[in-house]
Amino acid sequence: MRKKIIAGNWKMNMTPTEAVNLVNTLKPLVNNEDVDVVFCVPAIDIIPAMEAAKGTNIHIGAENMYFEESGAYTGEISPKMLEDAGVKYVVIGHSERREYFAETDETVNKKVLKALEHGITPIICCGESLTQREQGITIDWIRQQIKIAFLNVTADQAKTTVIAYEPIWAIGTGKTATTEQAEEVCAAIRACIGEIYDEATADAIRIQYGGSVNAGNAAELFAQPDIDGGLVGGASLKPDFGKIVCYNK
Ligand code: 13P
User: Fold this and answer.
1) How far is the CA of 71 from the centre of ligand 1 (A)?
2) Selection from 34, 91, 45 nearest residue 210 by Cα
3) pTM more than 0.90
4) Which pLDDT score is estimated for 179?
5) How many CB atoms lie within 10 A of CB 131?
6) What is the mean pLDDT of residues 123-143?
7) Residue ID of nearest Cα to ligand 1 atom 9
8) Cα(190)–Cα(179) distance, rounded to whole angstroms?
9) What is the CA radius of gyration of the chain?
10) Is residue 166 annotated as a catalytic residue, yes or no?
11) Which run of H or of E encompasses 244?
12) I need a surface site. Which of 18, 43, 50, 202 has the fewest CB within 10 A?
């Protein structure tokens, strides 16, 4: 049985002071031992959020990372820095990073390999645009994203990773994919991992759904056989996140 993993993606929200307050507000609400709980926060919030989350079940993750160890890359944050801070999860290749910061499947692959090298679990994002869905090429597109993201990743490494399926048209729009749409793509991702590696790897890898997840739709989404949790944007900034994490209570 795969343990569910429910992660908040705070995006570019919360000052360090606000971050501490939010962790303090949410910590009594996200206590669910059936679930791995992760708050992926802006780089400047990582240390104070970790302090605030000490002694709780909350893991603090990063939202991005560069693929070099150190050097002349002004403004970037390295895997070494995250590792030293005790970060165990990092979101890689979110569609917003692909759209606004020119990330590609190739840079995603480099980042995935680097994170794994540093013992950090990548939460690898994939997802189609509305046009791609309407053209019926969703599955082909996602398979391509997955195949490139996992280049040179071993089966043992792949087993430890997390994939987040986030249809771009469902992000921040209030337009959740139907349970059937979400399950169909998550099942296709698992099948693709099975083709690249083997059944054991496909069975072990955790696949999240993301895109307008809220307290009202979480339980149904997370009950699907191939959906192992969620990557939550807007609702992760509110007490509602507690209801999402405790979807099975
Ligand atoms: P929303 O939950 O706000 O739609 O965002 C989803 C997302 O992009 C999480 O990474």
Assistant:
1) 32
2) 91
3) yes
4) 97
5) 10
6) 97
7) 233
8) 16
9) 17
10) yes
11) helix 240-245
12) 18
